[in-house]
Design brief:
single chain, Metallo-beta-lactamase, Chain A, globular, eight-stranded mixed beta sheet, 14 strands, six-stranded mixed beta sheet, alpha/beta
Length: about 280
Amino acid sequence: MIRSIVASTAHALATGLALALAMPLAALPVATPAAAQADRCPKLVAKSPFIAPPGPRIVPAAYVGERQVGLTYIGHSTFLIETAGGVTVATDYNDYVRPSVVPRVATMNRAHSTHYSLNPDPGIEYVLKGWREDRDPVRYDLDVGDLWIGNLPTNIRDYQGGTIRNGNSIFVFRAADICIAHLGHLHHTLTEEDLGALGRIDVVLAPVDGSYTLDVDGMVEVLKALEAPLVIPMHYFNEGTLNRFLDRFASSQYTIERRESPELVLSRETLPMKPTVIVLPGSLY
C-alpha cells in the first residue's frame, strides 16, 4: 500500500557534511561501469499505441497493478516508490521525513542529514549510500524483485567552495518499463557522457531550491537535456521557491499541473505526451 504519513515535523537542515555511516557495504552488489546503465533504460520515445490522457492517472493508493509503479511524495527529497511486485524504496532516507512503512530499499545521499540516516530502520534489507568515504565512485547494479536500481555518481560542493568528488548519486529505478531518476543533491549540470550513462529517463525527481543544489537555470538545462516526459519537483522549502522554478519552466513550454494527492500510479501507456511538471504536496520543512 502506498502511504505518505510524514514521520516527523522536524524542520532543520544540517550545517555540516555527513559523517561515515555505520553500515557495511560488503554485502551490496557492485555495479558494472556506468555506461551499462543505458542498457537498462534504453533511449526510447515515450509513446502510446492509443491517445493517452494528459498525465498520469491517479488511482486508489491501495492498488498498484501489473505494469504500474506507485510513487508517493513524502517530503523534502524523499519519495516512496512501490512496484507491482511489492518492492518498496525510500529515496534520500533520513531521520526527519520518512514514509510510514519500512521500505525494502533505502537510498541516501551525503549533502546534509536530511538526505541520510545514521540509524536506518533495521528492517531495511538494502541500504544504498550514494557515495564512498574515500571519494571513489560507488556503483550499483542491483535487481530486487521486479525493480532494478542503478546510479550515476556526481560531485558536490563543500562549505569552502571546493569540490567533493563523487559525493552524490543520481539513483535510477526501473520497473514496469518506466525509468525514474532521483537527482539527489545535484550541484552541477550533466555532460554528454552522463546523459549517455543515464539512458532514457521517463520521470525525473528534481531538486528545485535554486541555491543549496543547482541554480534554477542550471536545473532547467539538466531537465531539458534529460528530455523526460514527466518532472516532479522536490527540495524547495517554500511556495515562493517552487513558484520561481515553475515560472521559469513554464516558459520552456512545459505543462504545469498541481495535484491534491501526493500519490501517483504510473504506467508506460499513461506517461504524458507533452513534457509535464506535476507538483505533488509533501512536507516542505
